[in-house]
C-alpha cells in the first residue's frame, strides 16, 4: 500500500523541469489520490554540471540512459528529451526492461507507435503519449476512455500551433508568409528549421495518432494526404475573406460505413462563423463526431512547457494506478480493423479555385465546358479584372466533387490556351 | 482479481436503459480495461411489469430501494431516477451503507452536495456526478484530474441546453420567446414546467458544482446571482445584433487574487465572433482559464440519453478502479478555502442598456449628467426614433463599471421625468 513508485526522467528542459516542479508542488495531493508516493529517482541530462534553476535534490543526475533503463527500482520512464532514432531505441529498450513510458514525443509515436504499442502490450507495460498530441487538451484520454464506448465517425481540427499562429497573423495583420514566419521564429513559436510545422508534417503525425486511436486501425504517416501552408498568399486570404471564409491548416480523419478511412492535413477554407475559424494564434482545437455522443470539441493551448508538463503528470498518475491495479498494457487500444483507405474517387469535398485567364469573350465558356465535362458544378463564382494586361482573375467554389474529378478538371484547365495559370486551390469544409 | 463488481441501478428511463445497453455491449472491453467484471444486480423501477424494449435478464427488478441499499453484494449505486428530496434520502442512506454513488442528479448535488460529499469521504466511498453537469462533456474529470495541478481563475460557459436552444431559435428565426418555448416543449427540449431551465436555476446549480470544484470552496446555490431568459425580447436581440452582439445565457465563475469569488448566470451579450456566440441549439460549452495551462474549452451536447449514459459508465469505471485501488473517497476535492464573496462594489463588467425617453432637446444631457455623476462612461451609443409618439429609444453599452454603479445610475435614471422606461439591461462580456 505504501510502496513508492520510482520514476526515471529523461530530459530536463522546459517540460522536464515543469514535471519536476509539479511533482514537488503537488506531492501530498498526488499521494492522497494514488495511495502511494511518486518519486523521481534518476534524471537523464546531457550535462550534469549545468547550472539549473530547479531543485533536483533527491534525484540522481546521469548522462547514461542505461543506468535508468536497467535500474530495477524504476517503474516508469518519462521521455521529454525529443529526438527520433536514439529516442526510439531508448523507449524500445525501456519497454523490453518492463518500464512503463510516458512521452511527449509525437515523432517517435507516429513513426514507431505501431511497433512500440503492441510490444508494450506484450510486455504488459503502459505507453502513454497524451502530451504528444495537443499539449493542454486531454483528447487521447477522451478517445480511449470517455468516448471508448462510442463509434467515432469523424475528427476535424487544428493540431499545429505554429501554423495557426502564422495564419492568424497573416490574416489579421495582412502580412505575407515570410516575415510572419520570421517573427514566429523570434518569438519561439517556430523552430529554426520550420519545415516540420509549415509543411504539415507535424500535424500529419498527430492526425495519424488520433485516427488510429479513434478508428482502431493501423494507419501510417504516409497514408495521410499532406499539404503545408508555405504557398498561401495574402491574395488567397483576401479572396477567401471576400467569400466569407477563413483559411486554416485543418486535419481531417473520417471513416465511412464500409470502414474506409481518409486522413488529410491541408489548408482549408472554413466559413468565418465556423468555431474552428475562431481558433486563434497558437491554440489547438479538435472536433470529434461520435455516433452516440454526437459532436464534442476540445480546445486548448497546443503546446507550451506547463500545459505539456501537466499532461505528462496526468499520464504518470494513470500509469501508477494501472501498476497498482495490475492492468498495465490494457490501456492500449488494440487495432480491430484492417487498414482500408479511400481512393481519390471516393474522397468528396468542395474546393476553392483561383485562376488567371484571358479577359476575352468565350473564355468562360471554355472553362465551363471542361468543368461540365467532369460534372463539376459551382456554388460561388467571382470574376475580377486582374492587375495585369487583358487578363481576369476568376475565383470559384465547387459543389462537392471527388479529388479525382478535381484533378482531371484542373489538368484540362491548365491545357486551355485562355488559362494563364491556376494560381491556387484549397479544400472548403465546415458548411452543411 | 476476478471479483465481480455488483451494481444497483436506480431508474430505468432513457438514461438508465442507455447504461444497461452500454454495459452489455461493451462487457468484454470493460472487463479488459478494469481487470474485473461489472454486473447490474438489481434495478429500481416504479412498475415491475411495464413492457420495456431493453433486455434486463440477469438483473432483478424491484420497487423497494431498501433491497438495493441494504444488499451487501452491491458496491456501486447508479442514480438516474431524478427527483430531489426522496432521492437525496436514498443517496444518503446508500452512502451510510458504504455504497459508491454515480449520479446524473445536479439538483441533489447542488442542494446537498456540501453534505453528501464530505459524508462520502468520511465513509470512504466515492460520489461521482460528471453526468449531472453537461451530459457529454468530461469537465468535472478535467477539473479534478487533468487540471488538478493548476490554479483555475475563471470559468465561463453555456451550461443549459434548453435555454440555448430557445435563444438560438429566437435569434435565427426572429420569433418571440413564447412560441419558441412551446416548440421546445413539443420537441422534448423543454419540460412542461420550464421554470428551472428558463429562469436560470438549472444553470446556476451547475455553476455552483463547477465553481466549488474549481475554486475548492463551499458555495451554495443562493450565492449565485441569477437572471433567466423570459424577459428577452425580439427587440433586444435586434438591437444587440445591430451592435455586433449575440445574446446567450452565460454562467461565469471567477476568483480574484484575494480569493474572493463571484458566480452569476444571466443573459449576456457576446461579440458575434466570440466562440461561445457560435454555440448553437442544445449544445453546451465551458471555457476554463487556468494559471498554468491557460485557456481550455470543452464543448459537447448538454444532455441526451446516450451522452449522459456514456458519462455515467465512465464514472462507474472510475469508481471500480478506486474500489480495486482501495482509494475510494479520495477523488473528493476537499474545500480548502473559506467562502469569500465579492460585493456588488467589487463586481466589474460592461452593460448594455435600452431605454425609452422623450424625444426632446435636453433629454440626452439629463441622462449623461446622471451617468457622469456615477462615473459611468460609454463605449457605444445608438439613438433611434421610437414607434411611439415623440419618444426615442436609446441603446448604450458602458465601459467596465461595478454592479453597484449600474444599480445607482439606473435608480436615478428611472426617476428622471424625461425617461419613460428602462426597457432592459444585460451584461456584456467576451471583449478584451
UniProtKB/TrEMBL annotation, chains A, B:
Binding site for NADPH: 106
Keyword Metal-binding part of the UniProt annotation: yes
Known catalytic reactions: L-homoserine + NADP(+) = L-aspartate 4-semialdehyde + NADPH + H(+)
Annotated NADP(+) binding sites: 10-17
Co-factor(s): a metal cation
GO molecular function annotations of the record: homoserine dehydrogenase activity; metal ion binding; NADP binding
Enzyme Commission designation: 1.1.1.3
Domain ACT residues, every copy: 352-432
Active site: 206
Tagged with keyword Acetylation: no
Stated family: Belongs to the homoserine dehydrogenase family.
Protein name: Homoserine dehydrogenase
Amino acid at each position: 500500500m505504501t510502496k513508492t513508485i520510482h520514476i526515471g526522467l529523461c530530459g530536463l528542459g522546459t517540460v522536464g523541469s515543469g514535471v519536476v516542479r509539479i511533482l514537488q508542488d503537488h506531492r501530498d495531493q498526488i499521494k492522497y489520490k494514488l495511495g502511494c508516493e511518486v518519486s523521481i529517482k534518476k534524471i537523464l541530462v546531457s550535462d550534469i554540471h549545468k547550472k539549473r534553476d530547479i531543485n533536483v535534490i533527491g534525484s540522481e543526475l546521469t548522462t547514461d540512459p542505461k543506468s535508468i533503463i536497467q535500474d530495477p527500482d524504476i517503474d516508469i520512464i518519462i521521455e521529454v528529451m525529443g529526438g527520433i532514432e536514439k529516442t526510439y531505441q531508448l523507449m524500445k529498450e525501456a519497454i523490453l526492461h518492463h518500464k512503463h513510458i510516458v512521452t511527449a514525443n509525437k515523432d517517435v509515436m507516429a513513426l514507431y507507435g505501431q511497433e512500440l504499442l503492441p510490444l508494450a502490450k506484450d510486455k504488459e507495460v503502459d505507453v502513454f503519449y497524451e502530451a504528444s498530441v495537443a499539449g493542454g487538451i486531454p483528447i487521447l484520454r477522451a478517445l480511449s476512455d470517455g468516448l471508448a464506448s462510442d463509434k467515432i465517425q469523424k475528427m476535424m481540427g487544428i493540431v499545429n500551433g505554429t501554423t495557426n499562429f502564422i495564419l492568424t497573423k497573416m490574416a489579421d495583420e495582412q502580412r505575407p508568409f515570410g516575415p510572419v514566419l520570421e517573427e514566429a521564429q523570434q518569438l519561439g513559436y517556430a523552430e529554426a528549421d520550420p519545415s516540420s510545422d509549415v509543411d504539415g508534417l507535424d500535424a500529419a503525425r498527430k492526425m495519424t495518432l488520433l485516427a488510429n486511436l479513434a478508428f482502431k486501425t493501423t494507419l501510417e504517416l504516409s497514408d495521410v494526404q499532406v499539404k503545408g501552408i508555405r504557398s498561401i498568399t495574402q491574395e488567397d486570404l483576401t479572396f477567401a475573406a471576400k467569400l466569407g471564409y477563413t483559411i486554416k491548416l485543418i486535419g481531417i480523419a473520417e471513416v465511412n460505413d464500409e470502414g474506409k478511412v481518409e486522413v488529410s492535413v491541408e489548408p482549408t477554407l472554413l466559413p468565418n462563423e465556423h468555431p474552428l475559424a475562431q481558433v486563434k494564434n497558437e491554440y489547438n482545437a479538435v472536433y470529434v463526431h461520435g455516433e452516440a455522443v454526437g459532436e464534442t470539441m476540445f480546445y486548448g493551448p497546443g503546446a507550451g512547457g506547463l500545459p505539456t508538463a501537466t499532461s505528462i503528470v496526468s499520464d504518470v498518475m494513470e500509469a501508477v494506478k494501472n501498476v497498482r491495479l495490475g492492468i498495465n498494457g490494457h490501456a492500449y487500444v488494440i487495432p480491430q480493423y484492417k487498414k482500408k483507405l479511400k481512393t481519390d474517387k471516393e474522397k468528396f469535398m468542395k474546393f476553392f479555385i483561383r485562376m488567371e485567364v484571358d479577359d476575352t469573350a468565350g473564355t468562360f465558356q471554355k472553362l465551363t465546358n471542361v468543368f461540365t465535362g467532369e460534372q463539376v458544378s459551382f456554388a460561388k463564382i467571382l470574376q475580377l479584372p486582374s492587375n495585369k494586361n487583358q487578363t481576369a482573375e476568376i475565383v470559384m467554389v465547387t459543389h462537392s466533387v471527388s479529388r479525382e474529378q478535381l484533378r482531371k478538371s484542373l489538368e484540362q484547365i491548365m491545357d486551355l490556351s485562355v488559362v494563364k495559370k491556376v494560381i491556387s486551390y484549397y479544400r472548403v469544409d465546415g458548411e452543411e
